[in-house]
Amino acid sequence: MAKRRFGLDNRETWWGDPQDDPKRRGPHSWRWPIVALAFLLPFLVPVTRSLLAGPGVTVEAVVTGVVIYAYSLCYLAFPLFSGRERRERLAFGIGMNVLGLATLATTSASAFVLLYGTAVVVFLVAPAWAVIIDVTAVLAGVVILLAEGRFLEDYGDLITVASVTLAMFFMGNLVRAIRRLERANEEIATLAVANERERLARDLHDLLGHSLTTITVKAGLARRVLESAGDIPRAVEEIRAVEGLTRSALSDVRATVSANREVSLSVELVGARAALRAAEIDADLPHAVDNVRPEFQNAFGYVLREAVTNVLRHSGAKRVRVRLGGTWLEIEDDGTATGVVAGNGLRGLSERLAAVGGTLTTSVRAGGGLLVRVEVPRPDPSPATPAVRAEPAGGLA
Question: Which contiguous run of DSSP H or E holds residue 282?
Fold first, then answer.
């Protein structure tokens, strides 16, 4: 999985468009015009008074007034452009800074008037574009002040504009980083829910598939015993086994839902032996699991459960053979399968084995039937620990 970065340390962050969240308040709320007017009035009031105090209505005064109020309206309306296409936002930001420079050139206002445009660009376009546009605007402001002979008088305000814009630049990118982190947390929460659903579905499939299959086999055996031989004690024994399996399955469902269920390989061997015998399938199963590494027994137990369930459901096999090693497991049957179909069970097993670094391979035997093999790479032995060779366990059940 690619590492996510939220600061200004990669090209994507510098050139990526700001992500705007329409659910958020702020500039999109009704409060923004009030806040914007509070910032604009200290600039508009004196400039408007100076225009009205002129000798009369002139073309220059009209043009100056249009430029000033167009610049102010851009400041009021900039949130409306935050959700637009990149070209529109860039055009708006550049146009607003041009109006700001025109205002500085046509009025006696201080260089501080440029701050409205430079601040808007910081929040409207990508950081790289904000740097390009704002640096250009400040340098153009320097040229205008030098041309009008006001540089020595107003250079302090120009420095203030640059400093405040820089501070807002970092503040804006901090806000974006926080919003990206919030979105990442939302995605993590969504993925956690999805993963929990997948875990629950996988566990219930493995659990109920095996339990219901075994219950079906034993109930069928009890029916056949009653129909053919009338052996009531044997039928009662099988029915009691069905009752016990049902209770065990109910307990396992509760444990699965609460994520407290653990599978034991030895218990699964006992269950597999009973289920195969009830289905009248010869079972060549190991008598012990001591040679299997403890950290792999849980995963191997799931594999054994699913493989035996598939044998009971689909294979038509007469014999099943299971072999165990320290880091591997093999289940082989002599059924009629001629191909491998990857269903939910095999996909679930692959996910479980991936958690311990194992692999699952399924192949068709030459004489018919399936061979399922699970193998986990053997961990590197510690230099202080001598290697112990584990022999496969086997034996006829």
Answer: strand 282-284
Residues in the chain, total: 397
Q: Are the C-beta atoms of residues 250 and 189 closer than 8 Å to each other?
A: no
Which letter does DSSP use for residue 393 in this model? B
pTM for the structure as a whole: 0.52
Enter the DSSP assignment of 394.
-
- Amino acid identity of 387? A
Tell me the β-bridge partners of 360.
374
Residue 345 is inside which H or E element, if any? helix 344-355
> Nearest CA to 285 among 253, 263, 261, 307?
307
Q: What is the DSSP letter of 312?
A: I
- The angle that helices 31-52 and 115-124 make with each other, rounded to 10 degrees, is 150
- Kind and range of the H or E run holding 251: helix 232-257
CA contacts within 13 A on the Cβ side of 139: 6
pLDDT in tens, the chain (397 residues): 445 555 566 777 788 776 555 455 445 567 888 888 898 888 888 888 888 887 777 788 888 889 999 999 999 998 888 878 889 999 999 999 999 999 999 888 889 999 999 999 998 888 999 999 999 999 999 999 999 999 998 889 999 999 999 999 998 888 888 888 888 888 887 887 777 677 677 766 666 676 777 788 878 878 887 888 777 888 888 888 877 778 777 766 766 665 555 667 887 888 888 888 878 888 899 887 888 888 888 888 888 888 888 888 777 888 999 998 888 999 998 888 777 766 666 777 777 788 778 888 888 887 778 888 888 887 655 444 444 444 444 443 3
Q: Comparing C-alpha atoms, which of 155, 170, 172 is closest to residue 27?
A: 172
For residue 179, the one-letter residue type is R
Residue 374 near residue 300 (C-beta atoms within 8 A):
yes
Running DSSP on this structure, what letter comes out for residue 159? H
- 192 vs 170: CA distance, rounded Å: 32
